[in-house]
Amino acid sequence: MITAKIRTFSMSELDRLSKERHLALSDLEKRVIVDFFVRSKRPPSMAELEMIAQAWSEHTRHKTLRGEFRVGGQKLGNGAKKPPLRRAPGDAGPPRGGSPAEYRNLLKETVFEATRRLKRPWVWSAFKDNAGIIALDGKWGVAVKVETHNHPSALDPYGGASTGIGGVIRDVLGTGLSAHPIASLDVFCVEPGKPRVVDALAAGVRDYGNRMGIPTVAGLIYWDEAYKGLPLVFCGTVGLIRRDRVEKRGPKPGDLVYLLGGKTGRDGIHGATFSSQKLTDELTTSVVQIGNPILEKKVWDFLVEASKADCFNSITDLGAGGIACAIWELADLGGLGVRAKLDGVALKEPGMEGWEVLVSESQERMMISVPPGRKADAERLLAAFEFDFACLGEFTREPSVEIGYHGESLVNVPIKFLRDVPKRSFTVESAPKVEKAGRPRVLSVKPRDVKKLGLKILSSPNIASKERIIRQYDHEVGGRTLIKPLTGKRGHAPSDAVVLRPLYDSWKGAALGLGWSGALAKIDSRVMALAAFDEALRNVVAVGGGLTHIAALDNYCAGSTADKKVLSELVIVSEALKDAALAYGVPFVSGKDSLNNTTSDNRNIPTVMLVTALGVLKDARRTLSVVLKKPGNFLYLVGRTQERWGGSAIAGLLKFNGPAPEVDLTTAPGIHKSMSWALGKELAVSCHDVSEGGVFVALSEMMMDSGLGLEADCPENPALLFDESPTRFLVEVEPDKAKAFDWAMKSVSFKRLGRVTKKPLMKLVQGKRTLGQWTAVDLEKAFRGKGE
What we know:
By secondary structure, the protein is α+β, with helices and mostly antiparallel strands.
């Protein structure tokens, strides 16, 4: 018989407990819980309520994006075919009116559906493990995962970022039968004027990654008032895994379940439920975990040896929910149950209650299933690495979870009950009302203002060099980083993507690019999502990665799920990602959402999307950097300039409002394919994507650390130098290959913009008139001297 402090159980009692203990349960979930225990003819234990709350949290189960959405205010009949949504001819935007639609599972029917329909044979694992996996070659694959750690980082920037990177490294260690981490990335979004917050976030990632010997190779820092009091922190890791270890094998009935790594403490209690609701300071326990990278390195080393010895057949990391989530999720992989005791768990402090041990999210812990015949070998290795471990129990045929602690039965519930989160239903509008009537406003700049304006934009916080932060990370440890985050003669120019050489005996490469359009999130959710997707791909294409072997990851961040505007934006973003994936032929393989990013004064962050692209290169020696190579070479601008200013750096500087440039899904994939073909045929010697700050900033970055200069045509309206239209590239081409490059671009918009010069001077001309000129010293001083 389960003993419990709860003597009477009702909706009112559960309401009180949910508020007091920050369980973040909805009214529907409370009713389901009460009904379950009424039918079970007993009250729940406190441990069971805590376990259910962790298992059903937004953070662990993504229950909003997996919910049922009625788009347009009307639900279709059960099983009815969804009618097509009407679009204007050539319109790549969201549905404008048209028939109502229903998603029974939004994420499954948008992002997941795109991957299913594309059926890329080199996608080895998508959305079913701790990380996505794509093939590198026939024997080896590359695993990748990006996580968010927003709420903890708001309370403790250093600790939140540190455990964020530690957690995503464990995601990769827990993928398949354990992947080998080879590189990491980070993205920080912070309110302006808070360099100390960024310093603390960077220090957290730096101290963890550097001490583990994992290079931090990619990232960005974005400053915006929208993140006042609630920074966004994304951490990602790339790993290497053998083909025969991609699939977990078990567990099997009778296999033993082992907890290993760090001790369990009160740090991190309620982390999953805390991250599933608006930011609050009412918690009485520490929800921010304490990281220990040296211990995690020992866990990693153990997994390398245990993998070689074939000591385990399944593995997962202990992240959100701790033991409470990991133990039943591991059992559920084999359709099994588990019977365990927590008595042997090594504790950080005496006197911990059973429910605390169960839901603690203390770091550096993993869980593995060990066949009985491999117990001695596993324990010998565990002891050799000198960290704590305990055999908690065994997996059973009965699919339920039974957990005891010091003679008390803490938990006895069916796994199906934990797995099947009550379905959430939402009714939202199909699209926001976006004013598009009339001709877009014209932003003009006087020629005499170009020089000063250019330097001001180049030195603005979101464009200026982040070298001060980048240099804190070891981005070369392991010897796999071929194109580094900074390039050029002195390593001052920012790279589009980084290129890794995962295998020491092969020149197969892996390019990692990021896409982010934070400013557009305030204007149009669809435009923002498409722009982020396009930028992530541009970065990979620009270094020589083709479109034929690229996968993407999605990371949603949004405000309160009680806000219908937020829900509508989630639908729009999801639809946009599906459309983009199918248009470009690029599948998604992993993702994560962080919702309810709402401050204590009820302010939502904008709904925004980080897209990560991972591309495989046949020969990593044939990659391109951004810096100019040789005087006399031609400079080309590939892609169409739209003359739309919304969300651009110049619009922000001049306080100008207007519509944002949009990715045209009917033409953008063709531009990427033409560029991929041309760069694959070695028709260019350098390439840079055009993004923040437009052509002016891209030209400056290509020149400033090359030792060379350039002369380029300036448009009649100099403001177009700062236009941020997507799907554009600057390309340096040798004269004897110009004809072939012209032919390769015959089906897309392009123009010869100028040429490379010997003197390190950027000159912009209109006919015979010099509109402005900047020395490399001027440009570099602006770019490197004023970033926050």
